Amino acid sequence: MRSEGDPHTSPGLGGPAVQSLTLLVLSGDMEKGAAACTLALAALASGYRVELFFSFWGLNLLKQPGAGGGGSLQRLMGVLNRDHAGRQRLGRLNLLGVGRWAMVRLMKSRGLPSFREALTTAHRLGARVVACSNTLELLGLTRDALVPEVDEVAGAAAFLESARGGQVITLS
Amino acid sequence: MRSEGDPHTSPGLGGPAVQSLTLLVLSGDMEKGAAACTLALAALASGYRVELFFSFWGLNLLKQPGAGGGGSLQRLMGVLNRDHAGRQRLGRLNLLGVGRWAMVRLMKSRGLPSFREALTTAHRLGARVVACSNTLELLGLTRDALVPEVDEVAGAAAFLESARGGQVITLS
Amino acid sequence: MRSEGDPHTSPGLGGPAVQSLTLLVLSGDMEKGAAACTLALAALASGYRVELFFSFWGLNLLKQPGAGGGGSLQRLMGVLNRDHAGRQRLGRLNLLGVGRWAMVRLMKSRGLPSFREALTTAHRLGARVVACSNTLELLGLTRDALVPEVDEVAGAAAFLESARGGQVITLS
Question: Residue A6: is its pLDDT beyond 50?
């Protein structure tokens, strides 16, 4: 979908100079965060331009512990929705925490990083981390409630612009 | 993936004249419907050609209230699977309806449209709304069971044809 | 995103000679497996090159019955995580197996294939079936634990390479 005039493509026969991968993370489950970071790190290693866009429950993955909104409904959602960048439940086989406990132990025993560690690495290697402005507003949160890796707070139009001409993978 | 001979591209250097976005909605959860409509509206505003293709549980988002199929197994699925265009449960934190109630109130208090309102707007602005023929047949439903915004009932081959050369975002 | 030098594109005006579709299956739910196979079969019928990449819970769809890992945590995960290529729960309305039972009966009564049957057909028609090496290692499984349709065990970098220039649909 790149045209010849696109600044991200080279004019030669070798195809686009920079491939881009945009990961749209709509789920806050531990396995979805892990999948996003695994794909981000592989893409960075292959020279892709990478953006991680977190929206809806995916925003939990960027929340500082204890972050909560202002209104009473938002405080209620904050209490119900306690996961954050340092702790997520499994989307499947969570089993009141037993499956989660086993998965965390298993990942550690195999030397796999936690979501937060992988996010920090991906960010340091150049992945752009974006939080959805609509979700932030809905939950009554501000930029301060998010981890420092967040490069930008932006909406759906900015997401589409960034995704334009590249590959999009949704984790929902 | 557009070639110069593609009717959707302009011959100039400015790249494709029309970008297309196809949203494949496989989940009937309230948040997935909201995400689909948010992306559809943003893409329409940016001049994209937009198609919303609803399949599997996503078809719930197009069902009229009370729609049910013919056979006894289909009636059983209809009873179990009561969500429709005007009412969806949350995929996460539904909490027997408490989370859903809080989310609906929260969205209203922030002036956000319901799924049905957003679908109507997207459709009026030019989004094509397609229901999966296989799912309809599986559930024993006909076109009459669906909201009037549905432009077409079609299968996987038609989905691939429409998605060809454009961007696909799956909400599952 | 194909360049003129790409072996999969024709030099003519008709655009890419071979479109590719990569299905990233991150969920082991019955309906996600069915969606993946439906899309794979439609794409094969339209002449696409198709790859099915199974990762995380999606690997359940490739497991032989009774497959289990080596360490004690891996054995625990194996006991909790009993689904396999021949039997999956529904991601929604499973209802301790009632919804699953109704769905399986409904699919049979409409002449629809099971996931396993559809996978075998897709594979015979040319779809490439790949299992995620990281997930295998995490669960302590080897190639022997998987169904014979698996063509390759590979990681995220191989997935990105295969998806390059084509369409990616995530089922998560």
Answer: no
Q: Which residues contact B120 (CB under 8 A, 6 or more apart)?
A: B149
Residue B4, min C-alpha distance to chain C (Å): 6
The region, left, alpha or beta by phi > 0 then psi within -120 to 50, assigned to residue B47 is: left
Residue A163 has pLDDT above 70, yes or no: yes
B164 chain-C contacts, CB cut-off 8 A = 19, 167
> Cβ of B6 and C15 within 8 Å?
yes
Give the ipTM of the model, two decimals please. Answer: 0.85
B9 interaction partners in chain C (CB closer than 8 Å)? none
Query: Which of the other chains make 3 or more beta carbon contacts under 8 angstroms with chain C?
Result: A, B
Q: What is the value of pTM for the model shown?
A: 0.88
What is the distance between the alpha carbons of residues B27 and C86, in angstroms, rounded to a whole number?
23
Q: B102 CA to chain A: closest CA distance, Å?
A: 6
Subunits with 3+ C-beta pairs closer than 8 A to B: A, C
CA distances from C96 to A125, C81, C99 (A): 44, 15, 8
In the block, which residue shows the tokens 């949160």? A141
- pLDDT band for B2, please (50, 70, 90 cuts): very low
What value does the mean pLDDT take over residues B107-121? Answer: 93
d(CA B106, CA B115): 14
Residues in chain C, overall count:
172
- Which among B93, C151, C24, B168 is positioned nearest to A35, based on CA atoms? C24
Q: Is A72 left (phi over 0), alpha (psi -120 to 50) or beta?
A: alpha
Alpha-helix runs per DSSP H in A71-132? 72-80, 98-109, 115-124
User: What is the per-residue pLDDT for B17?
Assistant: 57
The Cα-based distances of B92 to B56, B125, C64, C92 in angstroms read 18, 30, 31, 12
The 10s digit of each residue's pLDDT in B34-50 is: 999 999 999 999 999 99
For C156, the closest of A32, A39, A171 (CB atoms) is: A39
Nearest beta carbon to residue A26 from set B35, B105, B167: B35
Written as one letter, the residue type at A93 is: L
Cα end-to-end distance, chain A, whole Å: 25
